[in-house]
Design a protein that fits this description.
Serine Threonine Protein Phosphatase 5, Tetratricopeptide repeat, two-stranded antiparallel ribbon, TPR_domain_protein, two-stranded parallel ribbon, mainly alpha, TPR_rpt, elongated
Length: 289
């Protein structure tokens, strides 16, 4: 069983969620007035591709990263307060502003140039310089992990707002973003499962069941969430079967309409052709007037 990581940040709880109910509010969030500002971020955001991050002016120092984390955390707390007040649109924009503050973590390398600067700061190329660089790398990695975690929480909170606003497909996308930054993030998996079930297509229902099955393998779930998982695992297979048959009939109906449009020019219709399944497999097509 996979262990679900413990967050260092305050999160919106959703253990009370059921498919027919709304997301729970964050009763512990500090109340803060006013909506989010529109100030754009000067740092790399998730709207910018990793290929655009090669410019020297896009990198940040450890102190800059710490400032960004603190500011994003303040915006998250404001969003939590707005969410708790039922101001979904305000909370959505506040969480998005917080996310824009945070640079996208580079997964292929650590912060560029930091290791190069550390030895010169201690003025030696000997063991002291190497030890200082090693310690700096550990601190840097911890900050980058914190960055990824806060990005994941903000994306999951964006999904919570979108669920409240019944914008199901956007909620799925936000959960995907959260899971890019924090794999096996239970809240994101749960909210994506709820959004996909609300979408209701054959593919979405199947994806929802996959997520509920995934949740069942994670440790640390509450008894209430475990109950929701079991209920979902019981109800979704039948919903998937019904929806699959419905979508199959819709496709067959559209093909039949197309066939009738073509055959109608010759005074025929698809009703003139009968399909009969053969014992050994396949179908026999017969023509009737």
């Amino acid at each position: 069983m996979t262990t679900s990581p413990v967050s260092r940040f305050e999160e919106l709880p959703d253990e009370e969620l059921a498919p027919s109910t709304s997301l729970a509010t964050d009763s512990t969030a500090a109340s803060m007035a006013g909506g989010p500002s529109e100030r754009p971020s000067a740092f790399t955001t998730d709207e910018t591709s990793d290929d655009d991050d090669e410019g020297e002016d896009s990198w940040w120092t450890p102190s800059e990263l710490r400032d960004l984390l603190e500011h994003a955390q303040e915006l998250k707390q404001r969003g939590n307060a707005e969410f708790g007040q039922g101001r979904w649109e305000f909370a959505l924009e506040t969480y998005r502003e917080g996310l824009r503050e945070l640079p996208v973590r580079r997964r292929t390398a650590s912060v560029k140039g930091k290791e190069k600067a550390l030895p010169s700061q201690v003025g030696t190329d000997g063991e002291d310089g190497a030890s200082y660089a090693k310690a700096g790398e550990v601190d840097e990695e911890a900050e980058l992990e914190e960055l990824s975690e806060l990005r994941a929480i903000l994306s999951a909170n964006i999904a919570a707002c979108l669920l409240k606003l019944e914008r199901w497909k956007e909620a799925v996308s936000a959960c995907d973003d959260a899971l890019e930054d924090k794999a096996d993030y239970a809240k994101a998996i749960h909210r994506r499962a709820l959004a996909n079930e609300a979408i209701g297509s054959w593919g979405s229902l199947s994806a929802s069941l996959e997520d509920f099955n995934k949740l069942s393998t994670l440790s640390g779930n509450s008894s209430l969430l475990d109950k929701q998982i079991k209920l979902a695992q019981a109800r979704l297979p039948k919903k998937i079967e019904v929806q699959q048959a419905k979508e199959k009939d819709e496709v067959v109906g559209k093909l039949k309409d197309l066939g009738n449009m073509v055959l109608g020019k010759f005074g025929l219709s698809t009703d003139n052709f009968k399909l009969q399944e053969q014992p050994g497999g396949g179908y026999d097509i017969s023509f009737e007037r």
